[in-house]
Design brief:
The chain folds into two domains: about 110 residues, PAS domain (Beta-Lactamase), CATH 3.30.450.20; about 45 residues. The radius of gyration is 33 Å and the shape is rod-shaped. By secondary structure, the chain is α+β, with helices and mostly antiparallel strands. It has a four-stranded antiparallel sheet. This is Smp protein. InterPro entries: Uncharacterised_Smp. Its main location: membrane.
């Protein structure tokens, strides 16, 4: 009777373990989906933050140079911005929106904003790139004296962020696999000890019955 009770208890324990494993598996799948969504949202937010920060900092220098009519410094600023591999081009406008300084080989703003119709293969390639312009206003005290436009290579920025996040996800998956293996080994070891203990109890029960006879 005691052995049957222990067997029934063992079946219940195994069923609870299986149910817990299924619940944990479902929770892991949910976390994976949620993390992918958060990662995508984070990539976009980080790109926007990078573009806004870069443009606003450069705008402070541009406003100072424009106010003091430092033409060479403005050319140097535009060139240094465009030299960044994550920047497509940079342009400085006066308060009327007229171009006064621009980096070499600038992208057409109409193509970047998908306003101009694609007429050639080069236009198609230019339009296909994921590029976003960021604009900052230039002020002399409270008077607007111009604008700074920086066109970012958003595709390259997202790719870099995606590479970092992929490495992090790979490390997380490796840790999960190792945790699963450790849990499996511990469970197997406990299962062996449980079977050994059941055999000991069974032998003790048989010995007790033999003495009773």
């Amino acid at each position: 009777m005691a052995i049957k009770f222990r067997q029934k208890h063992l079946y219940i324990w195994r069923a609870m373990q299986l149910l817990l494993a299924l619940v944990l598996l479902g929770y892991i799948i949910y976390l994976n989906v949620d993390l992918n969504y958060l990662a995508s949202k984070s990539r976009t937010e980080q790109t926007q933050m990078f573009g806004s920060t870069l443009t606003s900092r450069a705008a402070q220098d541009a406003a100072t140079f424009l106010q003091n009519e430092q033409t060479e410094e403005l050319d140097r600023l535009v060139a240094s911005l465009a030299a960044d591999p994550l920047v497509r081009d940079a342009t400085i406008y006066n308060h009327l929106g007229e171009i006064i300084h621009q980096s070499e080989d600038p992208a057409s703003l109409d193509l970047v904003l998908h306003i101009k119709p694609v007429k050639s293969s080069s236009d198609a390639r230019e339009s296909a790139h994921n590029r976003i312009p960021y604009v900052a206003e230039l002020y002399q005290e409270k008077q607007k004296i111009g604008y700074l436009r920086v066109t970012l290579e958003q595709g390259k920025i997202l790719q870099q962020i995606n590479n970092y996040q992929s490495q992090a996800r790979s490390s997380t998956k490796t840790m999960l696999v190792l945790a699963f293996l450790v849990g499996f080994l511990i469970t197997r070891n406990l299962s062996k000890k449980r079977r050994w203990w059941q055999q000991v109890m069974h032998k003790a029960e048989m010995a007790r019955k033999s003495r009773a006879i």
